[in-house]
Design goal:
Length: 124
């Protein structure tokens, strides 16, 4: 059973930085496909950063150049470095993981394992 636990969220002023972590327990390794999602109240969850089994990454346009997804060599911890934060990125952030590739685009694919989320609040 794979469990994902996020940490690192909090409150920060605009222009600041945060580093989110997603710790995986159970069997995971660097071959897993993983994603960071964000969800605002009363809005749908959206994928914002993706890393595949080869370490290739993808980003949604509004975080490209400011956010960086990465993971440790063992594939046990996923990170999201968030720089130059803006109030509009305030949301609950969660991670997801799956051992299989998908024919769907990274923003539409499904995941088997999900974390509970960590809140990120950016004030102006």
């Amino acid at each position: 059973q794979v469990q994902l636990v996020e940490s690192g969220g909090g409150s920060v002023q605009a222009g600041g930085s945060l580093r989110l972590s997603c710790a995986a327990s159970g069997y995971t390794d660097s071959s897993y496909y993983m994603d960071w999602f964000r969800q605002e109240p009363q809005k749908a969850r959206e994928a914002i950063a993706f890393i595949d089994s080869d370490g290739n990454t993808e980003y949604v346009s509004f975080v490209k150049g400011r956010f960086t997804i990465s993971r440790d060599n063992a594939g046990k911890t996923l990170y999201l470095q968030m720089n130059s934060l803006k109030p509009e990125v305030t949301a609950m952030y969660s991670c997801a993981a799956d051992p299989h590739s998908s024919i769907l685009p990274w923003r539409n694919r499904g995941y088997r394992h999900w974390g509970q989320g960590t809140q990120v609040t950016v004030s102006s």
